[in-house]
Design a protein that fits this description.
mainly alpha
């Protein structure tokens, strides 16, 4: 019995370590994307990143599952996932091209709060009073963060909020298709449809929006960096999947906030961004709201189990 407990603790510790590595890798990829600001427009960068990812995932899916891996039911759900991913990616890439990485990441971290709200609205999951309180506090933090950012960068500062809405929508759609396909298939379909919608956005932006004009073919440096992000992001998602196989989602959830710490360090020490005190207060409220929501959800699950 004691040996089984030790094995369980070791597995859980390994899962937490994998989650820590995964969440630490995401802001590094964001920094690589931010380094391309001014070299290529955000929709085109996003398109290249997901095209590379979709091709790689298609090869892996075919190798593991053959043609059967590409057979899907309810394809419109996967298309909707891809659309949400495309909107979220364009919004976030556009935001980090012009504003501090730490601020963009912090604002987008209302994602868990929005997911809880959307779960109540669309999946008919019961909304507890604590969720409403946390939501109000978190959005108060967003408003505090937006105040100096909107003044400095204009309304582009609200783009991370669009990212949070899009990613929360994608999480709800993920739940609706979670029983349909394997992890490889789910990631492939999301990347494939995202690439389709990003193609449309890139063409439209090229002709209609001066800031999104594509100057020509990307240089080898842009291609290499997009490929790097495609590989690292996909690897981080797989590490998270492996982490959930070793420990509970509740144990992993609070580790997500390591992204904000790493993004802040990168923002200050690599890009030389100054962190506004008001933005720091707003980010702190968002972080505390997310942790409180996680803790309250965990307590609720414990009560139900008892």
């Amino acid at each position: 019995m004691q040996q089984d407990k030790n094995i369980g603790r070791t597995a859980a510790s390994g899962g937490i370590l994998l989650a820590l590595i995964a969440f630490s890798g995401f802001p590094i990829g964001d920094a690589v994307i931010k380094s391309m600001a001014g070299e290529w427009p955000a929709p085109a960068v996003a398109l290249l990143r997901f095209t590379i990812g979709a091709i790689a995932l298609a090869a892996i899916l075919f190798w593991r599952e053959g043609r059967a891996g590409f057979q899907i039911r309810r394809p419109w759900l996967h298309a909707a996932r891809g659309f949400a991913l495309a909107v979220g990616t364009i919004s976030f890439f556009s935001a980090i091209f012009v504003m501090p990485l730490a601020d963009a990441v912090a604002i987008s971290f209302v994602n868990p709060i929005l997911t809880a709200l959307f779960s109540g609205w669309f999946l008919k999951e019961k909304m507890r009073p604590a969720t409403w309180i946390v939501t109000i506090i978190a959005f108060g933090g967003v408003l505090i963060m937006l105040q100096p950012n909107v003044a400095a960068f204009g309304w582009v500062a609200i783009l991370p909020l669009f990212t949070a809405i899009a990613m929360a929508s994608m999480l709800i759609l993920n739940r609706m298709v979670s029983s349909q396909r394997s992890l490889f298939a789910a990631q492939f379909y999301a990347a494939f449809w995202a690439a389709i919608f990003l193609s449309i956005a890139s063409v439209a932006g090229h002709f209609l929006v001066p800031a999104m004009h594509v100057p020509g073919l990307p240089g080898w440096s842009v291609v290499l960096r997009c490929a790097t992000v495609a590989v690292t992001a996909t690897s981080c998602h797989f590490l998270l999947y492996m982490a959930t196989m070793r420990t509970t989602a509740a144990a992993i959830a609070p580790i997500v906030y390591i992204q904000l710490i790493i993004a802040s360090l990168i923002s200050v020490f690599i890009f030389g961004d100054a962190i506004d005190p008001m933005a720091l207060v707003g980010g702190g409220l968002i972080l505390l709201s997310g942790l409180f929501l996680w803790r309250s959800e965990r307590r609720a699950v414990t009560v139900l189990e008892v």
